[in-house]
Amino acid sequence: MAIQQRIFILLGAVLAFAFVCQRIRKDKILVEDSIFWVVLSVVLLVVAVFPGIAIWLGRLLGFISPINFVYTLVIALLLVKAFGNSAEISMLKSKVNDLAQEIALKDELNQEEEDAKAGKADTSPAERGDAATPRR
């Protein structure tokens, strides 16, 4: 692996790690969500500092160039992350839908109760058909 590629990977890993740490400090990302990015940064740091690992794994898996192995690894990890995010978003959409339906049902019940109370208060005893109402 060429020195320029190693420097590029090293800088990318350091910048990604710094960005994630900054977002955690500013409470813009949950610690649980940042674990993936920290691990990815560490993996890239290890590959940049010890290129023999990428060379060995790349040859083992049939890659001609170690940098192609690194790019493929990063793409695969990002696809896994994207799938995980997609699954989480689907679950959250379902929860939002369930909550919206529950709120709509509660609002409907509250409206019916208010209408029933308002209807009894607005009618006179004669309109309600009370037997104790004197007739004129």
Blueprint (SSEs and pairs):
Elements: H1 3-25, H2 31-49, H3 51-60, H4 66-122, H5 125-128
Question: What key phrases describe this protein's structure?
Answer:
single chain, 136 residues, mainly alpha, elongated
Q: β content, as a range? A: under 5%
- Mean of residue pLDDT? 85
Which sheet architecture does the biggest sheet show? none
Shape verdict: elongated
User: How many individual domains?
Assistant: 1
Q: What radius of gyration results from the CA coordinates?
A: 32 Å
Helix content: over 70%
What is the rounded distance between the termini? Answer: 106 Å
How many β strands by DSSP? 0
Q: Ranges with pLDDT <50 over ≥5 residues?
A: none
In DSSP terms, counting alpha (H) and pi (I) runs of 4 or more, how many helices?
Answer: 5
Structural class: mainly alpha
Spell the H/E element sequence: HHHHH
Structure at a glance:
By secondary structure, this protein is mainly α. The chain is built from five helices and no strands.
Description:
- The protein is an all-alpha fold and 136 residues long.
- The protein has one domain (3-120).
- Helix content is 83%, strand content 0%.
- It contains five helices and no strands.
- It has helices spanning 3-25, 31-49, 51-60, 66-122, 125-128.
- α1 (3-25) packs antiparallel against α2, α2 packs across α3 and α3 crosses α4 (66-122).
- The longest helix has 57 residues, at 66-122.
- The mean pLDDT is 85.
